[in-house]
């Protein structure tokens, strides 16, 4: 096995449990194939970690183990089985969840979401693309997965039963999922528990769902007894999907969906009792964080202006580069700009099938705040 050596005094972050070794931290990089398993040593030639090499990008090695563990099919299968066991503990009886959350589950750069008897596996790392057969075996070993869609290094391939369109029960809601063509892996699973706030806040209320996508927030509100729900999304395909999902749950008479820019809808100044904002990541890089904060602030300010006295705002950011404190400060400024007093009832993260690796703040990304506007 080939060895890589770090530059002097570059090992401390990795010794604390961080799983990325940056290319500029390496003393020299020998001739390596993309995805090749390597051992990394300190400048003083002490073993540090075992991982796989990446030939492009800022990350030179993703760490798989801090011992000279055999990285073979059995190790891969065991790691995947361990991740599944955690989800079955968290959500007993459920067959929809994030099965693998990359670094937090010991498989850096690998994401897998389960939808019933299918699993969508995504990675841009050659290490995993080179191991499709053992990955298929690992995901199907329980006997209840009939097909796996692998989106690896720009290629898309079903193994086993191909099923691009799946209907599943996700935390009490029936949803049709476009596994191949939908955003992310077909659904956004990270708001699973945060949506449950609507069960107490939505009954009898006028609800605006500002980034509806597949309609999960809207349907949750309607099933909770909302008087009316308007779901907005800029994508025609998303609106069509949300309408079909509302019909699946028998709430199509309560839910109205509109293809529009939520910023324009908010500027109408129509009055709602509950507004939900769940935008895509507006800050994709550290350099764009300040601009994104301005966009978040104006969006939340206008949402607050639309809320009736006693209303509620459920608002989120999935931008890692907007941290919790910046998010909280942004909300404070938005309320001040809207000339409204507000109290925060909760500030939560992603559901626990998206665990945070404590040594890697990069694995914590979602913020979801529940605000009350007296």
Explain the overall architecture.
The chain is an alpha/beta fold and 374 residues long. It has helices at 12-15, 73-90, 126-129, 132-140, 198-201, 216-223, 236-248, 262-266, 289-305, 324-337; strands at 3-6, 20-22, 26-28, 37-41, 47-53, 59-65, 96-101, 111-115, 118-123, 147-152, 155-160, 165-170, 173-178, 206-209, 228-233, 255-259, 272-277, 307-317, 343-348, 367-373.
Provide the spatial order of strands within the biggest beta sheet. 16-15-14-17-18-20-19
- The separation of the N and C termini measures 64 Å
Low-confidence stretches: none
Approximate strand percentage: 25-35%
Instruction: Tally the helices.
Output: 10
Run of helices and strands:
EHEEEEEHEEEHHEEEEHEHEHEHEHEHEE
Helix content: 25-40%
Secondary structure: number of strands: 20
- Major sheet: 7 strands, mixed
C-alpha Rg (nearest Å): 22 Å
Quote the average pLDDT.
Answer: 95
Anisotropy-based shape:
globular
What structural class should be given to the helix and strand makeup?
alpha/beta
């Amino acid at each position: 096995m080939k060895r890589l050596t770090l530059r002097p005094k570059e090992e401390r972050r990795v010794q604390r449990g961080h799983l990325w070794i940056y290319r500029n931290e390496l003393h020299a990089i020998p001739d390596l194939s993309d995805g090749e398993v390597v051992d990394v040593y300190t400048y003083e030639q002490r073993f540090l970690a075992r991982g796989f090499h990446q030939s492009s990008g800022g990350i030179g090695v993703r760490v798989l183990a801090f011992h000279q563990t055999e990285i073979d099919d059995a190790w891969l299968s065991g790691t995947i089985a361990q991740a599944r066991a955690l989800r079955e503990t968290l959500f007993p009886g459920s067959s929809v969840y994030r099965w693998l959350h990359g670094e937090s589950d010991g498989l850096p750069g690998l994401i897998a979401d389960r939808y019933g008897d299918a699993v969508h596996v995504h990675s841009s790392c050659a290490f995993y693309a080179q191991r499709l057969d053992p990955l298929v075996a690992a995901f199907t070993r329980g006997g209840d997965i009939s097909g796996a869609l692998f989106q690896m290094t720009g290629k898309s391939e079903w193994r086993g039963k191909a099923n691009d369109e799946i209907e599943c029960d996700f935390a009490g809601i029936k949803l049709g999922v476009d596994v191949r063509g939908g955003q992310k892996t077909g659904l956004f699973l990270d708001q699973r528990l945060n949506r449950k706030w609507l069960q107490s806040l939505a009954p009898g209320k006028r609800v605006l769902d500002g980034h509806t996508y597949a309609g999960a927030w809207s349907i949750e509100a309607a099933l909770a007894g909302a008087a009316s729900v308007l779901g907005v999304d800029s994508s025609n395909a998303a609106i069509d999907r949300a309408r079909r999902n509302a019909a699946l749950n028998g709430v199509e008479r309560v839910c109205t969906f509109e293809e529009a820019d939520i910023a324009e809808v908010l500027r109408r100044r129509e009055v709602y009792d509950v507004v939900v904002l769940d935008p895509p990541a507006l800050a994709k890089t550290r350099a764009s964080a300040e601009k994104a904060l301005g966009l978040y602030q104006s969006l939340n300010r206008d949402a607050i202006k639309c809320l009736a006295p006693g209303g509620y705002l459920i608002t989120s950011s999935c931008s890692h580069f907007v941290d919790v404190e910046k998010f909280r400060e942004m909300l404070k400024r938005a309320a001040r700009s809207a000339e409204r007093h507000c109290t925060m009832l909760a500030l939560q993260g992603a559901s626990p099938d998206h665990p945070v690796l404590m040594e890697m703040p990069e694995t914590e990304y979602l913020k979801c705040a529940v605000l009350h506007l007296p």
